[in-house]
Design brief:
This protein has about 160 residues and is an alpha+beta fold. Helices cover about 30% and strands about 40% of the residues.
């Protein structure tokens, strides 16, 4: 899989001034979006937070990851629905994995909705493996949905 960005796009650190655009994408992409408070808490905690920005300042997506000891945890990768299927999700994922590798994490973990076939294809295509299930992890239109826990051994 090619993770090259098209000219005019760059991955830059997320800051509070970008939250309106981030929240707009989040709300259009997810039935149960993160709140502004969650994003602010992630920034306040110093999580690795990045946006994919065009030369015109428009955002195509973002990614957030926490790190502790030798473990990285991808918290959210989201691409604007109108920008999907252009390799942006892959580029964001590869960027987060590069940061985890540089921080000497031995594993990258993430949860994904069992029903999110596109995300599963992306993650498994990079080499993530299914290592567990979190029952009822995500809110759903009826009840709760299980999350698949995926892991990628860096070392």
């Amino acid at each position: 899989m090619n993770a090259q960005l098209k000219p005019g796009w760059a991955i830059v650190p997320m800051d509070i001034s970008l939250l309106p655009q981030v929240l707009d994408i989040e709300r259009r992409a997810y039935e149960f979006p993160w709140t502004e408070t969650i994003f602010k808490d992630c920034l306040k905690a110093g999580y690795s937070a990045w946006v994919l920005m065009g030369h015109d300042g428009a955002l195509a997506g973002y990614g957030l990851m926490s790190m502790a000891v030798d473990e990285a945890h991808v918290l959210n990768i989201c691409v604007d629905p109108v920008q999907q299927r252009q390799g942006f999700g892959l580029k964001l994922l590869k960027h987060l994995m590069k940061i985890a590798r540089a921080a000497q994490a031995s594993i990258v973990l993430l949860e994904v909705r069992k029903s999110n076939k596109a995300a599963l294809k992306l993650y498994e295509g990079v080499g993530f493996a299914r290592i567990g299930v979190r029952k009822g992890y995500y809110p759903a239109s009826v009840g709760r949905e299980d999350a698949l826990v995926l892991g990628f051994d860096i070392l």
